[in-house]
Structure formats: C-alpha cells, structure tokens
Amino acid sequence: MSMHRRTIRALLSLIALAAAAATADEQSPPASEWRSYCTAYLAALDGDKDASDLDVTYCVGVTKGLLSGMQVGSQLGALGFGSRLAIRYELDPDEVFQLFQQEGPATLLAICSPPAHSTKEFVRTTLEYLDRHPESASRPIAEVMYEALRDAYPCP
User: Fold this and answer.
1) C-alpha dist (Å) from residue 86 to 3, 75, 100
2) Which of 120, 122, 126 is nearest to 141 (CA)?
3) Lower CB count within 10 Å: N or C terminus of the chain?
4) Looking at residue 135, what DSSP letter applies?
5) CA–CA distance, 45 with 73 (Å, rounded to integer)
6) pLDDT tens string 21-62
7) How confident is the model at residue 121, as a pLDDT?
8) C-alpha distance from residue 66 to each of 16, 46, 52 (Å)
9) pLDDT of 13 strictly over 70
10) Helix 53-88 / helix 93-102 crossing angle, nearest 10 deg
11) Closest Cα to residue 127, out of 109, 152, 106, 96?
C-alpha cells in the first residue's frame, strides 16, 4: 500500500473517532443513570422477576442506540472529512471514497468485538469498565461506553 493511501486511511480513522465522540458528549445520560437501569436489565436476564420492564427497555434502547450511533457517526464523520481532505489537498476523490468503502465501522472506531456479540455482552463490558473506573460515573455514557468497548476489543 502506498504511503499516500496509508496516510488517507489513518486520517479517516482519526476523524471517525472524533466524530463519534463529538456526537456522544452532550446527548447521552450520565453513566451512573445508565448503570442503574442496566444493572436491572442484567438482573432480569439472570431470572429476577421483580426487575422493572421500563428499566430493561431503557437499558436496551440506550445501549443499542449508542452502538448504532457510534457506527453511523464514525462512517459519516470519516466520509465528510475525507471529502474535505480531497478538496483541500486536491486528492483523487474517487480514491478517497474507495478507501472509505474498504474501512468498516469497527476499524474506523477501533472496536473489533466478536461479530456475534449481543447487547448483554456490551452491557457487561461497559459495567465492568465502570467498576474499574468509578470516576467515570458522572461522564456521558456514550463516552464511557466507547472507551470501555475500545479497551475491551482493540483492533489488531
């Protein structure tokens, strides 16, 4: 792969990460709030009949929404920035777009979780991260979840 292509690929990845983080900041609840609902969700999965349906629904909805948002946000951010680079540095827009199409959301986000992972596994991973980083409880869950998944499932 040429140095030019590697540079473009690296820039696309960096921009995708920044776009995903930027969209997450202000619009997600604090990790402590998410944690309370998702603890109830895991309890329900473990057979707790008293777990609130609303808590379970909230946890699953927020978690799936954040996961989808990270994927879409990373792709849109990378494509948008790639387009700006192509214009500013007079790069071949077709080559930039082709490189973008070769990169999946996992690579752009630097999160390479197993394909068969379920919501439950992403919730557990994020809760374990919060256990190790209690200072993150007041931060937006989108930021915390991204960090937890990036740390747990780094790409090679």
Assistant:
1) 16, 16, 12
2) 126
3) C
4) G
5) 30
6) 544 445 789 999 999 999 999 999 999 999 999 999 999 999
7) 97
8) 15, 24, 21
9) no
10) 150
11) 152
Residue 86 CA to residue 93 CA, distance in Å, equals: 5
What CA–CA distances, in Å, run from 64 to 58, 59, 118? 10, 8, 10
Residue spans of beta strands (DSSP E) within the chain: none
Residue 114 is which amino acid? Answer: P
| pLDDT per position as a tens digit, 96-138 | 878 777 777 777 788 999 988 999 999 999 999 999 999 999 9
* Cβ atoms 105, 19 nearer than 8 A: no
Tokens of 83: 């387009």
